[in-house]
Amino acid sequence: MIRTINNSSNCAALLLRCTSRSSWFINVTSRRNHSSYDVAIVGGGIVGLATARQLVLRHPDLSFIVLEKEKELAVHQSGHNSGVIHSGIYYTPGSLKARLCVRGATMAYDYLEKKGIPYKRCGKLIVAVEREEIPRLNALYERGQKNNVRDLSIIDAKEIREREPYCRGLMALDSPYTGIVDWRLVSLTYAKDFQEAGGTVVTEFEANDIAMVTESPADTTDGMKFPIAIRSSKGEEVRCRYVLTCGGLYSDRLSQISGCSPEPRIVPFRGDYLVLKPEKHYLVKGNIYPVPDPRFPFLGVHFTPRMDGSVWLGPNAVLAFKREGYRVYDLNIRDFADAVSFRGLQKLVLKNIVYGVGEMYRGIFIRAQVKLLKKYIPEMTVSDVLRGPAGVRAQALDRDGNLVDDFVFDGGVGDVGSRVLHVRNAPSPAATSSLAIAEMIADEVESRFSL
Prior knowledge:
Elements: H1 8-18, H2 21-24, E1 35-42, H3 46-58, E2 64-67, E3 84-85, H4 96-115, E4 119-120, E5 124-128, H5 134-146, E6 153-156, H6 157-163, E7 171-175, E8 179-181, H7 183-196, E9 200-202, E10 207-212, E11 228-232, E12 237-245, H8 251-257, E13 265-276, E14 287-290, E15 302-305, E16 311-314, E17 318-319, H9 333-340, H10 343-351, H11 353-364, H12 366-373, E18 385-397, E19 408-410, H13 414-417, E20 420-425, H14 434-449
Parallel strand pairs: 1-2, 1-12, 2-9, 5-14, 12-20
Antiparallel strand pairs: 3-8, 4-8, 5-7, 6-7, 10-11, 11-12, 13-16, 13-17, 13-18, 15-16, 19-20
Helix pairs in contact: 1-7, 3-7, 3-14, 4-14, 11-12
């Protein structure tokens, strides 16, 4: 079943309205130095914006500001993802990740309906194409049941063809509750809610120092009510009582500049997509995923329809040489050196070297990627695809080379650390879970800072 609100043209028009700087952002250039707020949220991605929205709605008498280093909001992970509304199948039963995803999906659909944001509940098939995958598929079904995922069922080869006429498989896990949406549009709507409730948004403010101040601003009578100074790379300053950072790809560095722990470390992995040519869109109706292999750290290539009518294929997963490097040749010396010198990444590479080489090979040679995709849709050929966009995933790693698979929140000690809360790791499906994550972070902020 496909549940559609509005259409792609309405979606594009709404996105255009939401990204108009003249209608969205307060002109605070003259107020950046010595502006004072109760809570500053560093990071204008989907998690930061959802949390800012939640906080201002709970505490309308307090002042809040979102600080974003880019010219626009939600332009990195929040604007470079698959666009899937996940249902919560994959995650360990009872884990924070599982609970937040299942609740977050329900909250997301309710929010999309309320705001009139276009989405499609197009479903997902996780397809077993080899007999040895069937036990893992059944285990995944049991995991989904324990996570209270809605409407799951196991279907056979005939039912697969009924759902996806061009897909071939032995069995599949059918998740009709899975959907798609433009998560950047959702992020911008959170920002609109935040501003309408009295919050302030500042863009082009790259925080590079978080420190205590020793004196009050000369032009105020607030004394030391706002003892934390957040300074930008341009020398601008915002003062506040408390700081929440939701820095995504830079979350570990934000932690370091406030004197908190540098670990877990963020290592960027780029995912390159192919796209189906428009005349071949008929091959895919909903999301088609492989059965995940527990030996490897990522889900594998899949078919993802998009709200604009396109179909993305992939992604692979390779080390990015720049934290926001969406092209193969993007390089930042510091980012690259930080990654390759980290003991945790070295151990991860050694444990998965064959997998990693295969991912790089498929990223270079389209034919190799299509060979994997043909297992699910045999009719597909190399001539049916083009190179598409890429995203960069902020993967948290510990020093033993283990992927940090759940949310990590971190504060510190001392004058600064006791006034800062860092969201250190908000892994996929952070977009799906964003409203539920926002509730949890807001609870933590209230508890730590006695708001």
